[in-house]
Amino acid sequence: MPGLSKRITTLNAGGSDGWDLFYKAKRMIAEGIAVTELTIGEHDIRTDPAILEAMHAAAMDGHTGYSLIPGTPALRDRIAARVTERTGVPTTRDNVLVTPGGQAALFAAHMGVCDPGDTALFIDPHYATYPGTLRAAGAVPHAVATRPERAFLPDPEDVAAAARATGAVSLLINTPNNPTGAIYPRATLEGLARVAEAEDFWLISDEVYDTQIWEGRHLSPRALPGMAARTLVLGSMSKSHAMTGSRIGWIVGPESAIARFHDLSVNTTYGVPGYIQDAALFALEQGSALEACVAEPFRRRRALAQEILARQNAVGLIPSGGAMYLFLDIRSTGLSGEGFANALLDHHHIAVMPGESFGATAAGFVRVAMTIPDERFAEALHSLCRFAEGVARAA
């Protein structure tokens, strides 16, 4: 067989893609073992039936052929209006490209701003696909480490040093953050904006969790003075509307950049099915009430988790203001995140994600998705804490 490209064979830099424990849990489930699944960010509710009815109606009405590549005008207008309402930054359809999910937006953004061999910065801890996506776009990924004692918030001075050392052309941030749940405060974002301007790079802001805010306020860096011209915002219907399988997201950015991203879409995805875009338009037209309904279980479970974790000492909770996860400090056990997660799965059939799946900085932590009904979630968290307490005593 002919060889494969270096691009495809080096996506994971010779290592794991970060999802090993998730795959292990799925194999156990396939073998008939009852596993409590707290790994992936998949809602335990499904897409609202009214959205599915709108999707079905659009398909039956014939919107099943090729759709306009940048997205239907009506959907782009609605996304632009949503962005304008929430950020105060005037936004039109010409600032919006519809993509097949947030992951496609992430890839397209880096394809659009990075030439082969360019350095692309990202914050560690990070979503598991970030490094591989940057490599797929031809960029050289460079992690900027954060520290748990700062709740894993990035230090603008560290970003500046990395940008100067590498000549980076972009910085990828994620707020509210996956895996930590951190919401970047204004001072942090203003510091990053100053660095972006001083070092003249693009700021790529992954904001797919912008409807899951438990404390504080989400601020898009595109709304900061002078930043609309150098910021690309990634959005998605997956988390806000429980539409993970529908694969619909977007990029918001300068008109000239979005026009070029249109060219990329012509030669890669060739757009998003029209009936799915129509369903997304219907979902967005329902306003914030539907988004709040989708987010409410996670708000409730976060409060439940805080009560449970306050009654023990073996497991710490990184302060978080948003997203559908808990980021737990299990360093008292003496185990790595991978060691703890594998032992918890093997002995208690509870699956959580090792911190190492999200970068070297997250060693000694695990991420717990708050994605099962409250009673089962509380039971699983109690079991996790008891397991950690037992390991810590034996250490």
Automatic annotation (TrEMBL):
GO terms for biological process: amino acid metabolic process. GO terms for molecular function: L-aspartate:2-oxoglutarate aminotransferase activity; pyridoxal phosphate binding. Its EC number is 2.6.1.-. Its cofactor is pyridoxal 5'-phosphate. Belongs to the class-I pyridoxal-phosphate-dependent aminotransferase family. This is Aminotransferase. It comes from Salipiger thiooxidans. PROSITE patterns: AA_TRANSFER_CLASS_1. Pfam families: Aminotran_1_2. It catalyses: L-aspartate + 2-oxoglutarate = oxaloacetate + L-glutamate. Residues 36-384 form the Aminotransferase class I/classII large domain. The keyword Transferase applies. InterPro entries: Aminotransferase_I/II_large (IPR004839), AspAT/PAT-like (IPR050596), NHTrfase_class1_PyrdxlP-BS (IPR004838), PyrdxlP-dep_Trfase (IPR015424), PyrdxlP-dep_Trfase_major (IPR015421). Keywords: Aminotransferase, Pyridoxal phosphate, Pyruvate, Transferase.
